[in-house]
Amino acid sequence: MRNSVIAVEPIAGALGAEIAGVDLSQDLEETVFDAVHDALMQHGVVFFRDQDITPQQELDFAKRFGEIHFHPFVAGLPELPEVMEIIKTETDIRNFGEGWHTDQMFLPEPALATVLYAKEIPDFGGDTLYASMYAAYDALSDGMKELAGRLKTVNLPDAGRPRGKPATGSYNNLQTMGLSDTENYEKLSEHPLVRVHPVTGRKALYIGLHTERFANMTWAESQGLLNFLIDHATRPEFTCRFRWREGSLALWDNRAVLHNAINDYPGKRRRMHRVTVKGDAPY
Ligand code: SIN
Fold first, then answer.
1. What's the pTM value of the predicted model, to 2 decimals?
2. What is the 117 CA–ligand 1 centroid distance (Å)?
């Protein structure tokens, strides 16, 4: 019977675990929710298979983690705006979420967690990669930890840049997904490069494709260290890879995890429902 005995199986060394025995169409009892929350804190990203849930049930599950965060540029479903549809059709070139990032790092209070539910998945391709920013921070030398601990990053929505180039207009290239409020693309948010996780107390690198440069430094001055840190943070041993099936659901902690939606399924369709949970200002 589901929702009485749950099993948590890690899928890689640094992060990621599959949780079995949970039916997310039901209202989870406190003990089951606590076990899911503990697994999320321990593994950074957790996965559930074979879920059959409505947008409202996905939203109800997300709300257990906190208030809902709305994407500033992408509208939600007309009937349930808290749920955003991520879609790449047969004719789209770009996909949403390609490149290593943490959700809405360009805002003063970025998303705490993300729930992503697979509606349509190509027969192959379209996996998502995740990387542990605890592991990335822990592996830095003492000297680099000391330097990183003093730096702040400047982040903006459209910093999604090809390596070595400034911002390119990444959101504008998404054809099928609707966009709004595009005049706010240039708004900046500063964050510490190393953040302390408010629940676990662990330190994590906080960096991604939205990071344009370091505060009080020029773009050119920042690139060497920025590129080193992104390469370091996404070393294979700090990552896991999730192969989606229809009905799979991922839940990740944006405070300690980067993700990257692989765009390797040209001519095919992939459709997901995403809900994000509101976070606090990183410290
Ligand atoms: C995202 O960045 O939230 C999208 C991830 C995905 O579609 O796999």
1. 0.94
2. 10
